[in-house]
Amino acid sequence: MSSQRSDNEWIALISTLLTAPKIPDDLCMDPGLAENPNFQKLYGYINDLRALSAALAHGDLQMFAYTKGYILSNMKALQANLRHLTWQTKQVAEGDFSQRAEFLGEFSDSFNEMTIKLHQNQLELERLANVDFLTQIPNRRSAMQFLEQLFLLYKRSFRAFSIMSIDIDNFKNVNDTYGHDVGDRVLKHVSSTLKDVFRASDVFCRIGGEEFLAVLPETGLAGAVCIAERIRTVLEKSELEIEMGPPLKQTISIGVSQVLPGDDKYNDVIIRSDNALYMAKENGRNRVYTNPYEDVDELLKSMFPSDGDDKRSRNGTQEM
Amino acid sequence: MRKYKFFWDLIGDVEDGRPNLGTTLDLETYRLMQFTMRDVLEERFGAEIADDVFFNAGKLAGREFFKHYIAPVNGIDEFVSKTQAVLKNKRIGILRLEEAMLDKGRVLLTIDEDLDCSGLPELDYESCIYDEGFISSLFECFTNEKWRAEEIDCWCTGARTCRFLVTQENRSEATAQA
Ligand SMILES: [Zn+2]
Questions:
Q1: CATH architecture of A140-312
Q2: Tens digit of pLDDT for each residue in A60-76?
Q3: FRET label pair with A148: which of A54, A136, B147, B148, CA 20 to 30 Å apart?
Q4: ipTM of the assembly?
Q5: Cα distance from A85 to chain B (closest Cα, Å)?
């Protein structure tokens, strides 16, 4: 090609630059074009357009073009938005569910919907991980996490807490006599009856089988025994209707312990409440025992001095 | 003896101060002040010093802004989301992150509809020197390290977008590019 081009030749040349899949090699060699600054400026612009559009088409978001101009600006805007979306996606992957996309129309809607659903799933998984499937009260894992925090707090600022080990009396008989379906209903009945008696700050959980555990923050031994006695009584008075026979009456045995200055880990407290539970079972069930041993009646009297002679004395603690 | 040393109370009680006119003001008026100030600074002291003054004013503003509206923050996520929210609520601009490699000393971000330059035509040079100082400061306050923001590109498609590269200053170029 000569450097003296007609208008039509210029139009054909620019059209080639814009539309051809590959720019012919001889174009760059043409001395007339190489020395024309206006052409070089346009050529630089079109080259950036070609490169950035090709990069975008192939999902390469790393190419930066610094030439100015309307079409490139639009591509840069798209690129910046896609790069931002990439960053947002990484954020979501890291658990930052507050990210919302606000460009790309329908895609943004889908992205946002996905993020909201991921968040809901995440919350549901967290809930499931901490809840006992059958009774829908907290599970062992959740109680242990709570205890760990309470124990750290106790070590730092001596905020007392107490624990109850709770076991349904003669649960095996229920299963053997009426089958596992009724057994499951008993477990649900016990947990739903007891959970309403505890205070909002207490954590009452099922740790497996017919065993439950309650953690009572800011509560000393006397206070814990008082609540233990209350839940024991509430359950004793309740009934569960079944089709196979008369309503079932269920009782529980409870071991109570309080965190002590010599404890190294929260498990020390659980071991004591488990020992107390064992004593309660050994001594006739449907009663509250403590460890270290305290006379439960005396403890209760000390909390309610006017409330002297009542049926709590059938608690059997004297038998120790 | 300083006559104009900045402290936040200088801004005054803007809520009580304008019971009829309110706390917001026309963007043109804001730019009129900023650009006339820059004009006079350049005329008196040259473009370089004018830029330096604007950059450092931006830095001072960023520092005060961080103290007043953003601190305290825990971690990059909170820093980013809080900054995004405040910049949007104060109608300063729309911040979007493209890359946040804080540990590698490199952050790439864009600001859309920027207070200082949205609506301006594309120029052959990047002009948001005040913002460069402002953004540098936000990162410095957040990390307690030296950072430098540089406007590396801007484009208009109607609204104007400015792209800033923010790098940690005591790192070598090679690390920052990695
Ligand atoms: Zn700008």
A1: 2-Layer Sandwich (3.30)
A2: 999 888 888 889 999 99
A3: A136
A4: 0.83
A5: 8
